[in-house]
């Protein structure tokens, strides 16, 4: 049973740690030339060791889901597909021109927006182009995000034929009133049809994204959503906390904040959902993710192979991630770069034969060490401190850990921290003790640009 007092205590703003340092601490601009030099120096090492991960951001959606904080562009004009596909191809060519060997693709993910906004024909054209200049790793994982309303059998079959074996459906909530408020009308029957079609075709992992804390959600509605979800036995579920940030996601201003559940109600929704998943055979992977024993994510966790990057938890531990498309993020292992965030500006860069990177960060040796501690805790539940880092750990990290040690979240020795079964519910909080940028923050306002842990 989850201790509600601890959940309430640790329900504070903390990062999700898909990167370290986290995005708010990156530089607002980086030099394209320096990024290219870094990419060239790192590519061979990452490609030869594990192959690369590739993320393609497809931003278009036909309608605005008011809860959504993703980078998206709303349009019903499908003529935009062709120009965007051409731009992605050209960006890929710009990266290929910097490579001294053929890229080995280990992981490929289509995100959005709504990737299934694009026709199967256009997706096939894009992927054939990219894979035609690459080697596909024998142990690759290809996945995509699909909207149950517009993911057709043709989408599923086309992508399956290319090598995709995992699909993640954005379900969010099955309650008609909640769907009306968030402008995502999506009958459960559509979710069921899309799920069954994917399984008939041969997808080995069907995943659902759900959100708790949405407007008009109640204990009864969240339980019904999760019971319906469990009836379809998705192999993997991401049960995300709704982050209300109308100052950055303007669509969230379109509903009444009084319809949002209060802090205590939201906590109860989380506990109810998590309890139902655990009671029905799902395992808590950490940071909002649950998986059945047959899913590769659970197997990776039990075998110590779990990894985390900008796409969340993954079974593929690639040292290099290339992000293509507007707002996509790349990671060379010692530097991050995020593409420019508007489609118009993205096209300007691409048409000028310039990589469209804008924001980013180049790591120090200390950053790399502390990123490893955070990754180890979030993926393995354990980390070992390096002797070279002990003075910094004693000065900044240990005081934070000692403040919470009596809550039984971890076992601490001279050079090792290992999560307890209780601590696995509070991974983000424990990782934050190793976040030197957060720990050293001089912001006295108390405002943090992160969502609460719950």
In short:
By secondary structure, this protein is α/β, with parallel strands linked by helices. It is built from 15 helices and 19 strands.
Provide an overview of this structure.
The chain is α/β, with parallel strands linked by helices and about 450 residues long. The protein folds into 2 domains: about 1-25 and about 365-454, Arc Repressor Mutant, subunit A (Orthogonal Bundle), CATH 1.10.10.920; about 30-325, pyruvate-formate lyase- activating enzyme (Alpha-Beta Horseshoe), CATH 3.80.30. About 40% of the residues lie in helices and about 20% in strands. It has helices spanning about 5-10, 30-50, 80-95, 120-130, 155-160, 175-180, 190-200, 220-230, 265-280, 295-300, 345-350, 365-380, 390-405, 425-430, 435-440; strands at about 50-60, 60, 75, 105-110, 135-145, 165-170, 205-210, 235-240, 285, 290, 305-310, 310-315, 320-325, 330, 335-340, 355-360, 380-385, 410, 415-420. The strands form 5 sheets. It has a 9-stranded mixed sheet, with helices on both faces. It has a 3-stranded antiparallel sheet with strand order 14-15-16, with helices on one face. A 3-stranded antiparallel sheet has the order 17-19-18. A hairpin with a 2-residue loop joins strand 11 and strand 12. The two termini are about 15 Å apart.
